[in-house]
Design goal:
Blueprint (H helix, E strand, L loop, with lengths): L2 E2 L2 E2 L8 E3 L5 E3 L15 H4 L3 H32 L4 H17 L1 H11 L1 H18 L6 H15 L2 H13 L4 H27 L3 H12 L1 H11 L18 H14 L4 H24 L5 H29 L2 H18 L5 H28 L6 H29 L3 H19 L16
Antiparallel strand pairs: 1-2, 3-4
């Protein structure tokens, strides 16, 4: 059989292969364009990186304090001890969330410029100071200013943690890396309100003291990370951009955004769907399903437990097969679960539907994180993550107003509308070509 350049005519062409450090060779040019970015790491291997634990500590601290403050402590403290109105309480809570959302983009730019630990230390220090000063405030304006300071301080955490953890893990393990920090978010955000709600029944002062102790964990972890004590030999160095002017940074970030614009509508709409459902869950459970507070807490625990148990397995699946199939399947499953919630009956009937929603969330979360991080030029990761999170924040900020209006019109309307939106998002991503889900490399960035 004749050969041309080493290939026998009549045989199928073989794809070039890449030798891996673990001894296996893999084909080039499949669903990821990140095969040169180190070996794929398991969550267990990532857990051996001390800096990952630093990011886990800052995330757990931030989300514990955020959930405890704005879901449990301040609603009780401001209305009972400080005698503020519910409207004034809403202003204080909105100040934090609005500041956190709007400041993520500049915080992400600072992360790209100086590295995650240098940014996290002053920002989380400000958040801890705000928590410490809150029991010493006695009027609306001081509480609002401290709430804004807390939002500013926490705004840097997610851009820094996601950019830093993906940098440590490499693009081939980005879903596993982000899932580890999201487990810290689920744990901190879930434990915080429950624990503080228990302490509030005893003493507001004790609750604030516990929060101040937890809040200081964030800047302490950042200080240890900045000192270099958390570095391991396997960690790649952080490439900082201190000499780069803002105009160049924004121009290249804008070009990256234009190339990744196809994910932005879905980013906003999926968070809009979440925002539509969240504010109506409590009144729906109380008035339509006649659940008590402990029963409602059990349902939240069931859904969250399923998410926690399934998050790491699904993140490994995303690292192996890519984001598209888990993302589409997760949105379809979420739409089905949301629709079923609106027609739930008995408590046990509701339990498996909430568990189904938790399963869908465990599928969507790593797939979505893998997709968004993969679309970002690694040189602008912090800034662009801040942009994407700001867009997501707008969706979840607008959603509750729509959900409340729909619930007033018909109690099941928010569930139907949210399910339709999620199905539309799934259909959109199903039609997107597979090549779009590949990884954008820094070498592709316009210069």
């Amino acid at each position: 059989m004749r050969e041309i350049d080493g290939h026998r005519i009549g045989e199928p062409l073989r794809r070039p292969r890449l030798q891996r450090p673990n001894g296996r060779d893999e084909p080039l040019g499949d669903h990821h364009d990140d095969h040169r970015d180190g070996p794929r790491l398991s969550p267990r291997e990532l857990a051996r990186r001390p800096q990952m634990w630093g990011f886990v500590a800052t995330t757990a601290s931030v989300e514990f304090c955020r959930g405890a403050l704005f879901l449990s402590l301040l609603p009780a403290y401001l209305t009972q001890a400080q005698h503020l109105s519910v409207a004034e309480l809403g202003v204080v809570i909105s100040g934090q969330y609005l500041t956190d959302t709007l400041c993520k983009m500049p915080a992400g730019w600072l992360v790209d410029r100086f590295g995650p630990w240098r940014v996290l230390l002053p920002f989380l220090g400000l958040a801890a100071a705000a928590v410490y000063l809150m029991p010493r405030a006695h009027d609306l304006i001081p509480f609002l200013l401290l709430s804004i300071a807390f939002g500013l301080g926490t705004s840097a955490n997610w851009p820094a943690v996601l950019a830093g953890s993906v940098h440590l893990a490499g693009m081939r393990s980005r879903a596993s890396a982000t899932s580890i920090t999201f487990l810290a978010w689920l744990a901190g955000g879930g434990i915080g309100p429950v624990l503080i709600n228990f302490l509030v029944g005893r003493s507001f002062r004790t609750a604030f003291d516990v929060l101040a102790a937890v809040a200081i964990i964030g800047p302490v972890a950042a200080a240890v990370g900045l000192s270099g004590l958390l570095r391991s030999p396997e960690d790649p160095p952080w490439r900082e951009h201190e000499g780069e002017d803002l105009a160049t940074t924004m121009r290249e970030a804008w070009q990256n955004l234009r190339q990744s614009a196809w994910i932005i509508p879905g980013m906003f709409v999926q968070m809009l769907a979440l925002g539509i459902v969240v504010p109506v869950l409590v009144p729906f459970a109380r008035t339509q399903l006649h659940l008590t507070q402990p029963q409602y807490g059990l349902l939240l625990l069931a859904g969250g437990s399923v998410t926690v148990l399934c998050l790491i397995p699904f993140s490994r699946l995303v690292d192996h097969i890519g984001s598209k199939r888990p993302l589409v399947a997760g949105f379809v499953l979420a739409a089905l679960a949301v629709l079923l919630l609106g027609w739930a009956g008995a408590e046990m009937d509701l339990l498996w539907r909430v568990a189904l929603l938790g399963l869908a969330y465990a599928m969507v979360l790593p797939a979505w994180n893998g997709l968004t991080v993969g679309q970002i030029d690694s040189q602008r990761r912090g800034l662009l993550l801040g942009v994407f999170m700001t867009i997501e924040g707008m969706g979840i900020a607008i959603g509750p107003a729509i959900g409340g209006a729909l619930y007033t019109w018909a109690v099941r309307a928010p569930f139907v509308v949210a399910a339709v939106i999620l199905l539309c998002v799934a259909a959109f991503y199903l039609t997107v070509p597979d090549v779009r889900f590949g990884t954008r490399r820094s070498s592709d960035a316009p210069r």
